[in-house]
Every structure is written in structure tokens, then in C-alpha cells.
Design goal:
With about 325 residues, this protein is of the alpha/beta class. The protein is built from 10 helices and 19 strands. The protein has helices at about 40-45, 90, 135, 140-150, 165-175, 190-200, 225-235, 255-260, 270-280, 300-305, and strands at about 5, 10-15, 25-35, 50-55, 55-65, 75-80, 80, 100-105, 110, 115-120, 125, 160-165, 180-185, 205, 215-220, 235-240, 265, 290-295, 315. The strands form 4 sheets. Strands 3, 5, 6, 10, 11, 18 and 19 form a 7-stranded mixed β-sheet that branches. Strands 14-13-12-15-16-17 form a 6-stranded parallel β-sheet, sandwiched between helices.
Length: about 325
């Protein structure tokens, strides 16, 4: 089997990998399309000591599923957290924080940048016929964007600032725009500003960010500088949502958070079913975010390309 292998922060394309074998309750999935995420790039930089096949954003076709033969031939996407179901967190309904969890392409489970992958059938979601592969491959990323609305009650008219107009930031902006809040997105380049304008979303330059200008700030830059800018923008008793995961540390003035009574919320994976419904209803349009496509064997080149500033979604195909 072919795949992109990460080991000791070295990425390589291999064609000698063993085909995964699904256990009872799992599905063997043939990758149709996969998306390169900022987390993949940060893993490459050493964010987490992962040694295996990279990739967690995908749309695929079920080849076989022992015990769930009805899934064979179906197009699917899949939630990436593989949980035990029996630990304290799982039993308390906090499955996304399972003590024994594995994570597709991130932690203790081979990922989607390969010809085949496996996932528990309970993690799979059928892709509606009206959703193309190009749209479906954004399901995991859109679900992560929607998690913000699961965590924070956002009202119409609330001043919301998204700091970061990259792959995830663009989807967060589209999902928040549906609420009718007073939304602005911080951009550093003309291209994302033009794209946001075409979607009817207002953007502002970094130089326009003012102290305490927003009730809710979503930080999605993946940089310490982005965090500092986000902290500046959130008002006292406001909320700061952190979506970035990246290698390295951030200098943080905890006293200012206490004095200003800032609510800080970490946010990662989110709900797949609503994401698919929005894609099917064409209320979210991820297609303008597709910047380029590479065949799997050019995967190292694809990730190198995705590292460049300003690059949006890079896709891999078999």
C-alpha cells in the first residue's frame, strides 16, 4: 500500500506499507480524496511525537465492513476520535476526551494519506448524493468550525472577530455568518479579503484591530502573534475561543485574563451531522478554498506547498 509516512519529523512517500485489515466493528475504506490540514503540518514540525501515516480529513468508499455489510460501496466521511467506550470520560458522555482515545492520523492510529484506512463503523457518516467529493472532504474541518456554536451561545448582533483567514478560519467565518452576528475577519493579504467579500463577509486589516473591540474572538492563526492580537481584541468579560494547535509555547499574561474576567475556551473537533446538512443544503460553500491538488505519490511536495503562507486547501487524490 502507498502512503505518507511521518517519523522523527521526517516525511516520506512509501509504497511498501501493509494494507490495513478491519476488525469486527471496523470498516476498510478506500481513500477518494484527502485534505491537508494545519495540524498535519504542525505534526511534521513536532507538535506531537506521531510515527505513522498522516491525514485525518477524507472522503472515501467502504470496501468492506465485517458485521456491517450494508456499508460496502458507500461514500463516507469519518469522525477522527476512536474511543474505548468504557473509561470514566466515555461513561460520563465526554467521549471526545476518552482517556484511551486514538485519533486518526494524529495519535496511535494510521491516517488517511494512503490508499486505504480503517475506522470504527460508528465513526462513519454517509455522504448525501448531492454533496460532491470536493465538498465532502471539508466535513471534518467544517465540523470543527461548528463546535464553536456548541460551546458558546452566539446571539445576533454580537460583535465577533475571527483572527485568521486560513483554511479553518474561512469555514468558521461562513458558519458564523449564518447566525447574523456582527462579524469581521482579520486578514493579512488581499486574496482572502477578496474571497470573504465574495461571500458577503467583512474583513479588516491587522492594523484596524482595536482594544476590546469584540465580545467574542476566535483565534485560528496557529501563531503566538495571532494569540496576542486576539487577546488585545477581546473586551473585558468577553470570550476568547482558541482553535489553533501548533508546536511551541505561548507567552501568556494570566493576570490580565483574571482582571478582565476573560473566558478562554479551547475548541477542536465538532459535530459531523450538522456539517453534512449544511453542505447538502449548500449553505456553506467550501469550493473556493481549494487551492491545488496533488496525486498521493506527490504528497511530500503537496505538504511542502501547503506550508507556504497564504495557501488554502491542498487536496490529495489516489
Amino acid at each position: 500500500m502507498r502512503g505518507l509516512w511521518l517519523e522523527d519529523q521526517k516525511l516520506s512517500f512509501r509504497d511498501d506499507l501493509a494494507n490495513p485489515v478491519p476488525k469486527l466493528g471496523e470498516a476498510l475504506i478506500k481513500m477518494r480524496l484527502a485534505g491537508i490540514c494545519s495540524t498535519d503540518l504542525e505534526l511534521w514540525c513536532g507538535y506531537y511525537p506521531y510515527h505513522d501515516i498522516l491525514g485525518h480529513e477524507f472522503v472515501g468508499e467502504v470496501v468492506e465492513a465485517p458485521g456491517r455489510e450494508d456499508l460496502a460501496g458507500k461514500r463516507v466521511v469519518g469522525s477522527i476520535s476512536i474511543t474505548c467506550g468504557g473509561c470514566e470520560a466515555c461513561l460520563a458522555g465526554r467521549k471526545s476526551h476518552c482517556i484511551n482515545r486514538k485519533t486518526l492520523g494524529i495519535r496511535n492510529h494510521a491516517g488517511a494519506f494512503a490508499d486505504y484506512l480503517t475506522l470504527p463503523t460508528g465513526n462513519l457518516y454517509l455522504v448525501p448524493d448531492v454533496v460532491s467529493d470536493d465538498e465532502a472532504v471539508f466535513t471534518e474541518l467544517l465540523a470543527a468550525a461548528l463546535e464553536i456554536q456548541e460551546q458558546v451561545h452566539i446571539q445576533s448582533g454580537m460583535r465577533v472577530l475571527v483572527v485568521g483567514a486560513g483554511r479553518l478560519g474561512m469555514l468558521i467565518a461562513q458558519s458564523l455568518a449564518l447566525i447574523g452576528c456582527d462579524l469581521k475577519v482579520v486578514v493579512r493579504r488581499e486574496a482572502p479579503a477578496l474571497l470573504l467579500s465574495s461571500l458577503g463577509i467583512k474583513s479588516i486589516d491587522v492594523s484596524e484591530v482595536q482594544n476590546s473591540m469584540a465580545d467574542l474572538v476566535v483565534e485560528v492563526t496557529g501563531s503566538p502573534q495571532g494569540f496576542a492580537l486576539s487577546r488585545k481584541a477581546v473586551r473585558p468579560k468577553g470570550t476568547l475561543v482558541l482553535k489553533s494547535t501548533f508546536a511551541g509555547d505561548v507567552s501568556l499574561n494570566l493576570s490580565s485574563l483574571v482582571v478582565d474576567e476573560i473566558s478562554v475556551i479551547g475548541s477542536r473537533c465538532g459535530p459531523f451531522a450538522p456539517a453534512l446538512r449544511l453542505l447538502a443544503a449548500k449553505k456553506i460553500n467550501p469550493l473556493p478554498l481549494i487551492e491545488s491538488r496533488f496525486p498521493l505519490e506527490k504528497g511530500v511536495e503537496a505538504l511542502e506547498h501547503a506550508r507556504h503562507p497564504g495557501i488554502l486547501k491542498v487536496l490529495l487524490f489516489p
